[in-house]
Write a structure and sequence with these properties.
By secondary structure, the protein is an alpha+beta fold. It has helices spanning 27-36, 53-61, 73-78, 87-98, 103-128, 133-138, 140-150, 157-172, 178-197, 206-211, 221-234, 237-252, 254-262, 267-277, 309-313, 347-364, and strands spanning 39-42, 47-50, 65-66, 130-132, 283-288, 292-294, 297-299, 304-308, 365-369, 390-395.
Length: 396
């Protein structure tokens, strides 16, 4: 679907991949590097970029790469958490996060939060007829779910969302100030500590309900507090992006919307293809723990390595006709939730949120359309979505 011919693009210099070079339409740019330099040094990023599916999978699964580094942006802004830990720390912290993201707890969240909130938001949008889907739906549903997941009060949701915005901006943009994000993180953590210390422990359940007033054995108090921030960040922005990208795909491919409404296309297949074709997260960072070889390129110990999920998701060695949006395709090798020990623990919940949101929108309306000429562009470097998505919903 890339609008620019691959042959017309050339890298800006020898092995100088720059992820910001083609923000509006990066696909032909990714294609060129995947075909010609699947592993390459980038002077603008001061790191290696990896674009081919097999090599991305090798970095994510293999023992030669780690997430641990004091200067990783997520560690700078969130402190040491599960997402920046390997070895014993990762093994110790993973159950703290997994508890509410697997099994019966996910089913409870779906039944008690995701479905009723999705239905309420969809009905409200259909009743109004016009809305900005990003602001009025995509940002609302994941944050309500994340607040419930960590056990904070929904009445504080607006404040929590305000505090998380500079944190997410810092994770997404190299020009976002750390000082602003760090101040927001400190205010958030002070709020969490106050909740934990309040008489009667006024928490609703979730992570804080399980760990207040005392953290589980082997888990520090500060690790609980930092995990709240991690879940609020990780459980919201990528789902906001996926929701927005999914509705954008409904508008871009009206035959797929018709198939969903007719029941001939399972919503799970549609969402799986959205995640492959227009993933919410394009890059994630690793570091070489030793001198190693990746493809034909030598990677020295300590080097930063950015893996390109999006390029890997359209690798023609893995996906037939990879630029085509085909929800019924048989290949199930998309990498949008990662692989290996750092695969996303919230993938099941996030996928359910998007599937249920789409089902609710389709039930509440007879037609979904964009009132403007042309669809808004998907933009961003790390997190990718349209910034606004005006909709008109014809009532069911």
């Amino acid at each position: 679907m890339g609008a620019t011919a691959v042959g017309a693009l050339r890298p800006p210099g020898p092995e100088q991949f720059d992820p910001a070079a083609h923000r509006q339409d990066p696909w032909a740019y990714y294609d060129w590097f995947r075909a010609h330099r699947p592993v390459s040094w980038s002077e603008p990023g001061r790191c290696f970029f990896v674009h081919a599916h097999a090599l991305v999978d090798e970095v994510l699964r293999g023992p030669d790469f780690t997430v641990e580094n004091l200067f990783r942006r997520s560690r700078q802004v969130l402190g040491p958490t599960l997402v920046d830990s390997d070895g014993e720390d990762h093994t110790r912290l993973r159950p703290l996060v997994n508890h509410d993201l697997t099994g019966s707890r996910v089913r409870e969240l779906i039944a008690q939060v995701v479905r009723p909130v999705a239905e309420d938001l969809a009905t409200g949008l259909a009743r109004r007829g016009r809305a900005d889907f990003v602001a009025d739906y995509a940002m609302e549903l994941p944050f309500r779910v994340a607040v419930e997941l960590v056990g904070l009060d929904q009445a504080d949701r607006a404040r929590l969302a305000r505090l998380m915005r500079p944190v997410i901006d810092y994770l997404d943009r190299v020009d976002a100030p750390l000082s602003t994000a760090f101040a927001a993180r400190e205010e958030l953590e002070a709020h969490v500590r106050a909740v934990r210390a309040a008489p009667g422990c006024p928490v609703r359940g979730g992570l804080l309900g399980r760990t207040t007033p005392r953290a589980p054995e082997g888990i520090g108090e500060e690790e609980v507090v930092r995990t709240v921030g991690l879940l609020l960040a990780a459980g919201t922005e990528t789902t906001v992006c996926t929701l927005s990208n999914a509705v954008l795909c409904l508008l871009r491919f009206p035959e797929q919307e018709a198939a969903l409404r007719a029941g001939t296309l399972p919503v799970a297949d549609f969402v799986r293809e959205v995640l492959r074709w227009e993933p919410p997260l394009h890059f994630t960072l690793r570091y070489a723990v030793r001198d190693t070889q990746l493809g034909a390129v030598r990677i020295p110990r300590g080097a930063a390595v950015q893996v390109n999920f999006a390029a890997a998701n359209r690798d023609p060695e893995v996906f037939a006709d990879p630029d085509a949006f085909r929800p019924r395709r048989p290949e199930r090798a998309g990498l949008s939730f990662g692989r290996g020990r750092h695969s996303c623990p919230g993938s099941r919940l996030a996928t359910a949120e998007v599937e249920i949101a789409l089902e609710a929108l389709l039930r509440a309306s007879s037609r979904i359309r964009c009132p403007q000429d042309g669809l808004p562009p998907v933009s961003g470097v790390t997190f990718r979505r349209c910034q606004e998505l005006p909709l008109v919903l014809d009532p069911a």
